Amino acid sequence: MSALGHYLEEEGLATVAISLVRPQTENTRPPRALWVPFELGRPFGPPSDPAFQKRVVLAALRMLELGLGPVVIKDFPDDDPRVMPDPTWRLPSTPGAVAAGSAELLAALLAVDDVKAYCLEAAAAGAAKPSSRQLGDWFWNESATGAAMHVLRGVLQASDDDRLKLIVANFMVPATRVRSAG
Length: 182
Hints:
Shape: flat
Order of helices and strands: HEHEHEHHHHHH
Number of strands: 3
Radius of gyration: 20 Å
Distance between the termini: 41 Å
Largest sheet: 3 strands, parallel
Helix content: 40-55%
Number of helices: 9
Strand content: 5-15%
Structural class: mainly alpha
Strand order of the largest sheet: 1-2-3
Number of domains: 2
């Protein structure tokens, strides 16, 4: 976004980037950026919270009032309001084939992200509002699907295909969720 932001600014269009990774934003130096302390993929905060999301958007738009000048990176002042686990949230039920934890099923589908998204969306459905960490902890540490993805990652990491190993190592399981060998 930084190069594009500078280009658009040169053409007379003011820009504001919303940053989820502050060191990257500091290195790329967009004209204006609002750093938000939220999980990757949630630049406006938690889903289904339009009032909070509006606050993020308005904070970004207010940066346009700064006009031209040096690079400006501001911090959004609030954390995700769902940072604390919701005690009313309960584990979701999952389809039998997925609950069985079959790595072969997941490998055959070649849709790890789709399966993960399905599980997380199902887990977040309902009146309770689980935090991102709460959902991630459940998925990667307690669900059979998360366990199967860890197993599948290990199997694919043992492959002779270096490109496959690189993709699996970097994208299949988030780095903070990779289990140590041993």
